Fold these 2 entries.
Entry 1:
Amino acid sequence: MRLPPGKLRNDVLRDVVFPNLGIDDMRVVYGPREGFDAAVLEYGRDHYLIVATDPVLGVPEETFGFFAYHFAGSDVAVFGARPRWLVVDILLPPGSEKEFLEKAMRDLNAECRKYGSSVIGGHTGAYPGVAEPIATTTAMGLVRKDELKLPLAKPGDKIVVTGKVGLEFAVSAAYFRERELRKLLSFREISRLKTSFRFETTVPDALTAKPFVRGMHDATEGGLTALHEIADNSGTGFVVHAEKLRLDPMVQKVLDFYGVDPWSVSSTGTLIAITPPEKSDSLITELQKNGIIAFELGEFTADKKRVLIENGEEKAFPTFKSDPYVALYSKR
């Protein structure tokens, strides 16, 4: 069996990865499991330590340092912790320019200072066999035990989403397929999309949303199909109302141009907030006060069906088969 490109599917995780995780440790409250992008460890009487790790590769050079912070940092933030400590490995092809590393480190440093984080270790080098710059960041943060947020829902909880669905795909298309997109977008629109990579983070979203939510998730590879993982882990179903989905008009143009489904496209930086119904309006208001577009997309249900209501018709909510972002990246 050959592994498909992109994130490993859950059946491979269950069959190959999860049975080979070393010894059990009483300090591990939540370890590797489907739909959980961070680990939760005991840390004293009152706190948990949240730990997440993520690679950065195949991204535009201008974005490398930013994502070296935010890919892993976002996974810590959605568990309710501010990213506090980072361990960063940067592997470069032989002959890489020093200027690339300088910019990446300056950008990483800027994000650390913005959010009160420290790089406490790592490894940096240039090696044969490395074809393009790769970073792997492990981010850590503390959360009070009574403030831990898990990607779990109860029937009746609302699904609130921040308005960045499909942005990751559109930004990547602007960098990797600019010549094609000139048929669709103006030079100014393409330039705007390129600078919009700075919205591909859930750190500010999650830190703002924390007081109003039961749990959170970053809609990365597979996009909004992450709702299935939340429902699986929670023993619930969900209903999504297609007419409530709000896409940036420019993102909508790009998705339509490539025939991409907004429900399953990688949407890094899009916060899925699991919100008690009485807090939904307050959450959306607070996010919008902080310049973050958000909207209610649906709700979790006691009925375990996963339903998309579109044009008055009920259908099964899409599942994650393949992510169009992977094809975009592989054909750069």
Entry 2:
Amino acid sequence: MFNAGPQLLRSFATGIAPLGGTVVVSTGQTDPDEPGPLPANVLARRFVPQPEVLARAALFLTHGGMNSVNEAMRAGVPLLLVPQGADQQMVARRVVELGAGLTMHTQHITKDSVHRLARRLLHEPGFKAAATTLKAAQHRAGGHRRAADELERYAQAAGLVHDPLPLDPSKRG
């Protein structure tokens, strides 16, 4: 979470922990010990390999940054979004519109509110179905390689470059 202090992280962890499984909390700049004692099924670390964790996750609670949301969609994981700035409100709104998640405001976060929304995301099948649909669409779209190819084609068609860019960045000049 972006700007999540110890109390907020504690509310997230203790709200989700009773739902079962292992709860992985990436604390970022907050010391993992600061939220105090957490339930036995909560693993708190400063950083985790997010794509690898998402590949095994049933739910992702995030601030709604574009990279995090794309990684969750690539894994087909429903989201509980707590937007905090920049484009996060817009991203969260779109995830909700597509049926792949729910959103909440920081000022409304309590252990109980997190538990209630996380439970919905885990038990109402429409959220997982929507996330799975978005996963398939993202895979069909071709990912970062196709995006780079499309940008190069556009740049050539617009006359911005005349020769394809070398694959080796050190030779691009």
